[in-house]
Amino acid sequence: MLPALCLGLVSLSTTFVWGQNPQTIHLQSRVMTPPGSSLRRRALPPSNVPLADFFLGTDLQWFGNISVGTPPQDITVVFDTGSSSLEFASTLCGQACSQQIQFDPSKSSTFVDGGRVTSITFATGVGVDPVVGSNYKLTLRSGVDTVTVGGLKANSVNLFLITDQTPTFNVDPFSGIQGLSATAQGFFASLINQGLPSLFSLFLTPNAIGHAELTIGGVDHTKFNGDPTFATLPAGSSSTWRLVSPRLSVNGKTTAVLNTQRSIIFDSGTSNILFSTATTEAIYSLISPDIKANPAEPGTYGIACSRISSLPAVIDITFTSQAGTPFNLTIPSNELSVGAFTNNPTLCQTLINAFDGLDLVGGSLLKHYYSIWDVGARRLGFAPI
C-alpha cells in the first residue's frame, strides 16, 4: 500500500542508451551469494516468517505474525514495501476495529505513549479497487514498544496505534501494516544495528501454491534456482523501492507510449498494477480492443469473463541489471483477470488500474518472482519461481 504523500517522489531524469534487445534471463541452477551483498555480516541470523494469502478472486495481500509488548501480544500485519511505518489496531480503536485483533497498550509493561496524533491516507488499498478520496485512511497515536518478528527482538521501536479507521480496513484478516521501505526504519533498523544483514526477501506465491514467506536478513535459496538478477535503485530514490524502465511490451509488441522511460515503484502491499491512463490503455490496446473502461468504477477496466482464457496477455517490463544489460520481468497471461466485478459478475476486471502520476507494480508481478530487497546495497534482485 502506498501512502498518498509518496506520490510526489516518483519522477526521474535518468537517461539510458540501449544497444541491444532485452532478453528474459534464464538462470542456471546453482546456489550463490551475490558479490558485495550485505549477507556477509552474520551477527544475527536470518529468520523466516510464514505468510498467509488473503485471496478473494485473486491474491490480494500476504500477511504474517509479529508480537508487540511485554508480555508479547500477537498481531498480524502485511509486510509492505510501499510504506515505512508500523501501525496496527488497538483497543483505542473500538468498534471501528471490531473485526481485528487489537493490541492493548495497558497490558504491556514496556509500552510508552508518544502522545502524537496523526493520520495516513493511502493512494492504493488492500484490494484491486481504486482508492476513492480518503476511503483508505487511518487515524493514529504514536508510541514506543518492543517488537519481535520471526524470533528477532527489537527494543524501543517507534510505532503507531490505530485509533480509528475507514470501514475498508475493518474487513481485513490482518490487523496492521509493517512498512519495509528502501530506508531501514523501526524494528528493521534496530535489528540491523544489532548486526542483522540489511536486506530481506519475499516469496509471495499464488494461493494455489502457498507456502509464502518473508526472510528477514537473508535469502532462502531453497525457494528458487540459479542466480538472482540485480538492478540498482536510481539516485534520489530515498525510501521508495523503484527502478527505471525504458519500455514495456505486450505479446512482444510495443508502441510509442510504451517505448518511453518511466520510474516504476515496487509495492508488495498493492495487489495489482497501476499505470497512467495513457500507458494503461496502450497496454490494453495490444491485448484486445474489447477491454474497456468501467464507468461504474472509475480507473478500472474490464472485458467479458468468457473472453479471458482466449486472450494472450504477456506483459514484459524491461529494466537494466547491475551488469548493464537489459532484462525483463514478465507478467503472464493468466494474471489478466483479477476477478469479476461485484455489480456485474459476467464482466471481469483486468489487472491494470489507471492512476495518472503513478507507475507501480504489486502482487500481479511479484508473485512470479523471488524478490530480494537489499537496503544496504540499494538494489532489488529477482529470480523466477
UniProtKB/TrEMBL annotation:
Database matches in InterPro entries: Aspartic_peptidase_A1, Aspartic_peptidase_AS, PEPTIDASE_A1, Peptidase_aspartic_dom_sf
Gene3D superfamilies in the record: Acid Proteases (2.40.70.10)
Example of a GO biological process term: proteolysis
Similarity comment: Belongs to the peptidase A1 family.
GO MF annotation terms: aspartic-type endopeptidase activity
Organism per entry: Hypsizygus marmoreus
Domain (Peptidase A1) ranges: 62-383
Keywords: Aspartyl protease, Hydrolase, Protease, Signal
Catalytic site: 80, 267
Encoding gene per record: PGA_0
Signal sequence region: 1-19
Protein name: Pepsin A
